Structures are given as C-alpha cells and as structure tokens.
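Dear colleague,

Following up on yesterday's call, I've attached the two folding results inline so they're easy to grep. Please treat them as preliminary; we haven't cross-checked anything against experimental data yet. The first protein's sequence and structure tokens come first.
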Amino acid sequence: MEVVNALGRRKSAVARVFVSEGTGKITINKRDLAQYFPSTILQYVVKQPLNKLEVAEKYDIKVNLCGGGFTGQSQALRLAIARALVKINPEDKKALRSEGFMTRDSRSVERKKPGRPKARRRFQFSKR
C-alpha cells in the first residue's frame, strides 16, 4: 500500500495526515501521540475512527498539525484520519458518517466588529 494523505480542519487548526501500513504508531509533529496530547480524552478523540473500524494496530500515521488549541487540533486530526480511512476503503464511509466523523465542523470564532468591545457585545447603554 502506498501512502494516503488527507486534510482535516476545525476552528483554526489544520491537520495534514499521511497514512501507511504499519504497527499503529501515531506521530504528530515528530512527537509521539501520548507526548503531544497528554490528556487521555484527547487521545481517545484522535483514535475514535480507528477504534470504530478496528484498524488501530494496522496503520502508521504521520501528522503535521498547526494552528488552534489542543481541542481543535484533536478534532481536526480525527476528521483527517477518517477521510484517509475512507480513501483507503470507501465501504467504511457509512460507518464513519453514522458516528459523525466525516462531518467538518465549520464553526469558528466570529470576528470583532468596529465600535463594539467584542463580536456581539455592545457598550453599556446610558439613558442619562
């Protein structure tokens, strides 16, 4: 099998994934998954598509992650892994979509508007 690549985004985080056959090693920015995401919850989020298809020990994954915070990065990585798995085997798409791993969450931070302290917040109104 050749190397399959995919892209995942969430908020301002971008994950570029390169999947090849191997032993289940996930390397993020030249660091191990447990070292990059010390939180077990975020490690679980990243591995969700692999565990759903029961292929966690089958593929080696190299990742370039940039932008955003740790939650956005983990969810961007989950989307990228799911997209790569669908490129490898298109029959898996239905199972991954039913879990919501194939949907790109387009929510991002709303920009600050001029004449206001934040995006929607207005300065306090004074009647007198």
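Below is the second protein, in the same order (sequence, then structure):
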Amino acid sequence: MKGALTRFRVMAYVVGVFLLLLCVAMVLKYAADMGQFMKVVGPIHGFLYAIYLVISVDLALKLRWSIKGTALVLLAGTIPFLSFWAERKVVEKTALGVPL
C-alpha cells in the first residue's frame, strides 16, 4: 500500500505541474500566437493524466474509497492547483486511516 501511495503522490505532482504548463501554453497560444508549446505540452499532459487515473483508481481500490471520493480525486488532475491539494488530503486521510 505504501508503494501505491508513493506512486499516487508522484503522479499528482507531475500532473499538477504539467497542467500548469498547459495553462501557460494555452495563454501563449491565444495571447501571443505561439501554438507550438501547446502541441508539445498538451499530449504530454494527456498521457500523464491517463497514468494518474490508473494509479488513482489502484489506490482507491486498495484503500476502499467511496465512489464520490474517487471521482473527486480523479477530477483533481483537470483543475489547476487542485491535484496538489488533493494529494495532501489523500496523504492526511490515509495517515489517519480514514477512507475518502
């Protein structure tokens, strides 16, 4: 279980960082007509988010999270800064032994 939590923590941070990069790339695309960053960062974020989903579901099954808690953690990778907050909450609740 510790390995699954560590994998989740790493992917939550990685997805969060790439989502922020994706937001910057989107601003550059529309404000400065520099779409080449979007072409690189977009697919990378999409691939990493898919891995985040698999790792999150794996952890949810191992820790017996509720469907609502699982869905909220899965959506955290789509809203800037939310994956960092979700990672902290998951670690806190796991340390206390409280299911999500």
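For the second protein, one point worth flagging: The two ends are 15 Å apart (CA to CA).

Best wishes,
A.L.
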